[in-house]
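User: Batch of two.

Assistant: Item 1 of 2:
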Amino acid sequence: MIEQINVRQAISSDIPGLISMDHGYSTDHVWQLSYRKQPSEIGVTFREVRLPRPMQAVYPRDPKRLADEWTHLQTLLLAEVEEQPAGYLALSDGPAEGSAWVTDIVVDLRFRRQGIASRLLAAGKEWCRARERRLLFMEMQTKNYPAICLAQRTGFLYAGYSDLYYPDQDIALFFAVELG
C-alpha cells in the first residue's frame, strides 16, 4: 500500500499522460446474467462465476476520447505518486437530481492494487459532498470483477444494469452510494 497519494484536479497538460495509461484489466471472475421471463414475472439474476483462467479485457471506451471530453466533465481528478500520474477519476452529472456519475476510474498498471482507486473514490465522494450531491453512481462491465469488488468494498450497492450499453454491446452494471 502506497503511503502518499496526492489527488488533485487534472489540467490540460495532464491529459496525454492519462490517455497513455493502460486502461485494460485482467480478471478471473465475471458476473453472469441469467434472465427469466414468465407471463406475470421477469427475473434477472447475476451470479459470480470463476473463469477457468485469467482473461485480459479491453476498456469499453476509447481512452483518446478524453482529449475532447474532459472539459465537459464535472471534474477530472488525478492521483499522483511521487509526482507521477498513477490514475484518474472522471465525474459527470448523474441521472438523478443531486447526483454524480463516475464515468471512468483508471489506475495505471504499475500502480494497481495499492489503494489508489479507493483514494480516488474517496476524493470523488468528498467532491460530491462539497457540492451537496447526495448520490454517487458508478458503472462497469460485468466482466470487470476488480471494479465490482472496489465498488462493494467502498460502500456502493448494486443499483441495476443495462444490456447492450457499451460500444461493444457489453452489459453495464450500476452501483450507487448515498453520501451523508
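Item 2 of 2:
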Amino acid sequence: MSETPVTVILLAAQRTGVVNPLAERAGVSHKALVPICERPLIAHVMEILTTLPAIEAIRVVLEPDGQEAVAPVLEEFRDRGVPIELVDSDKNIVESVIHATKGEDRAFIVTTADNVLLTHEGFEQARATLATSDGIISLTTRERVWAVHRQGQRGFYDFKDAGYASCNLFGLNGRKSLAAAEVFREGGQFMSNKGRMIRAFGLWNIILMATRRITLREGMERLSKRFGLELKPVVFEDGALAVDVDNARTYAVAEWVLGRRLGMDIAKPVIVPDA
C-alpha cells in the first residue's frame, strides 16, 4: 500500500435554513450529528480517518452556524496526532472543496461525513491510485452493490462494460487538478443542465457514454484528454462503499452493514423497491 501523505477534505455541511429530514427525525441540528450504531455519522468517518497513516490534516468543511454543534464530536479525535481544522463551507459544494484546498499544491482526498461505511482498505486503494494520477473518482459495480443489499444504491452510470455506482471518495493531486473541478463552479443541478454538461465533458463524449459505446476506463481516458490531466477510476470490490447515508432507506442499509462490522445484532432491512 502507498503511504503518500494526503490531506483529507471532509464535507459535512448542510444547506443553510434547510432542516435535514434525518436530522429532524433524530432530533439533532445537523445531519453530521445523526446517530447510527450509537455514534454520530461524522464520528464513524473520523474513526477511520484518524487511524490511517500519513494523514497530514483533516479539514472539516461546515457552515459557520453549525460548527459549534459539531466541534465537541471532533474533540474526541484531536489527541490522535492528526491536525483537525474547521473550514467554512460555501453554498456551492465545489467552491467549498476549492476553498478547503487553500490553493496548496498537494494531494487531497475528499469524502463526506455520511460516508460511514468507509474502510481503511478502500481509502488506501484510493490513495495508491491518486499517487500515480492527477485525480481520481471511486466507483463500484451494480453487482457488487446488489451483493450487499439490493436497495443499497439505486443510481448507476451504465457503460459498455458494466453499470457503476459512485462512491463518496475523490482525489485531487496538486493544484493543477483543480482545473477539472472548475467546470462545476456554475452551481445548480449539473446533471439536469444539458448546456453545462456539454461545456464540461464535450458533446461527443456524452453521446458515447449515454449510448454505452465505451467502457468506464475509455471514458476516463477521454475525459483525461479533454482536461489535460491524468484522471483514473478506482473500482472497489466492496459494494458497501457506494452506500452513504442519504435518506431513511440508505440509513437502514448502512446501519445494518455497519452494525455487522461492529458486532451488533441488527436485522437486515426489508425495503420495498420503488414502483
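The radius of gyration is 18 Å.
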